[in-house]
Amino acid sequence: MSKKNNIILIGFMGVGKGTIARALVKKTDFFAVDTDDLIESAENKKIKKIFKEEGESYFRDLEKKCALWLEKNVDNTVISTGGGFFRQENIHKIGKIIYLESSFEGILNRIHSAPNAKNKLKKRPLLSDLEEAKKLYNQRIKDYEEVADIKIDVENRTIDEIVKDILGSI
Ligand code: S3P
Q1: What pTM did the predictor assign?
Q2: Which of the two ends of the chain, N or C, has the fewest CB atoms closer than 10 A to its terminal CB?
Q3: What keywords are annotated for this sequence in UniProt (predicted)?
């Protein structure tokens, strides 16, 4: 159990971790950071470019470094994470883990109904092949549940409802 007062949002790509983090900031005195944003600023490179030029395992090493840094340095913060960040060994030491749960179809609907749908797809290298992405989703769902302290159903629910659920459960 973490001694820290962070909220960590985990879940599959496109489920709305960043959106929910920003909504939580509005309702609490927490601030927010996003692991992908931290990595992009540390490398001065977009995730897509890091994957392309350095490969996925280089990116996973950066996630690990980021997780160790968060454990040491960050408190009272909502941390939205990349979809694979939940595998970090120290994740329970960083804070309370909230899994945002949706079906794969629900996630695709959410992405496609966004005004910037094209960009949302383009910036995520692991969503470029939807068949492969679905496989990855199926491989991960049980693991997300296992890692999570709290599971929140986000499908067909408003941001306000989701935020209320999260604040009521922590
Ligand atoms: C990944 C999810 C992405 C990003 C990277 C890898 C994953 O973050 O970290 O492309 O392994 O699921 P989002 O979940 O914000 O799309």
Answers
A1: 0.97
A2: N
A3: Amino-acid biosynthesis, Aromatic amino acid biosynthesis, ATP-binding, Cytoplasm, Kinase, Magnesium, Metal-binding, Nucleotide-binding, Transferase
